[in-house]
């Protein structure tokens, strides 16, 4: 039995669906019992923002947990990881490429929790939050795998409103290059980490097969969706306002914009072991767009 968190999202939903297809019993935590989940997945009440609520989801011993952390801070993470590790043999955490290697990898979850409020403030960006969660998972006493994907193809759904309006797609960094990864590939690696011993105590990186600038991503959307889309470069301030208006915390918006600006001159690279880890070529961004055409309206 594998507990999946975040099963209503793109990656978590794929993990739950692929586990269910493999014949694994899959309870999935959801803050609302009525939330729609993939076929064959059992809803259980549980909210990562409230560690105590997860107790019911892990009352039975589970073989593993797929853990993703959707909150813009690490508060409550130590309690959550400790609780999950008490009931699960293995934790597979969805982290991110670029997380610095932790100097506190040997600390227990309880010890890592004592870093204090100052450390929480220092780690209040995307990679910092992931780094803290990685330390907690490594020190939990459970078997662990840290998945480190590059840019999510699904993040380009942030352009959906622009696409539905017929464009232009507005971005502050149209020449930022990324090797966007399909959530189905992330999920395939997560399932391997959960069901086999091949990735225990590793932090594999995974990306898509090609580096595309944001302008090239929009061109792919134009070709696959058949929409007359163009790209418009806007100021950082305009892009920041749009991100925050869409619900992105300001510190995360700044980190995203900084990363994209840097990628205009230093693009993200393709992770060299992705095909070997998957046992097949990774899915392309073009395939992702075809799979999600309906999401763009």
Automatic annotation (TrEMBL):
<dbReference type="InterPro" id="IPR051604">
    <property type="entry name" value="Ergot_Alk_Oxidoreductase"/>
</dbReference>
<dbReference type="InterPro" id="IPR016040">
    <property type="entry name" value="NAD(P)-bd_dom"/>
</dbReference>
<protein>
    <submittedName>
        <fullName>NAD-dependent epimerase/dehydratase family protein</fullName>
    </submittedName>
</protein>
<feature type="domain" description="NAD(P)-binding">
    <location>
        <begin position="6"/>
        <end position="195"/>
    </location>
</feature>
<feature type="region of interest" description="Disordered">
    <location>
        <begin position="102"/>
        <end position="121"/>
    </location>
</feature>
<dbReference type="Pfam" id="PF13460">
    <property type="entry name" value="NAD_binding_10"/>
</dbReference>
<dbReference type="InterPro" id="IPR036291">
    <property type="entry name" value="NAD(P)-bd_dom_sf"/>
</dbReference>
<feature type="compositionally biased region" description="Low complexity">
    <location>
        <begin position="102"/>
        <end position="116"/>
    </location>
</feature>
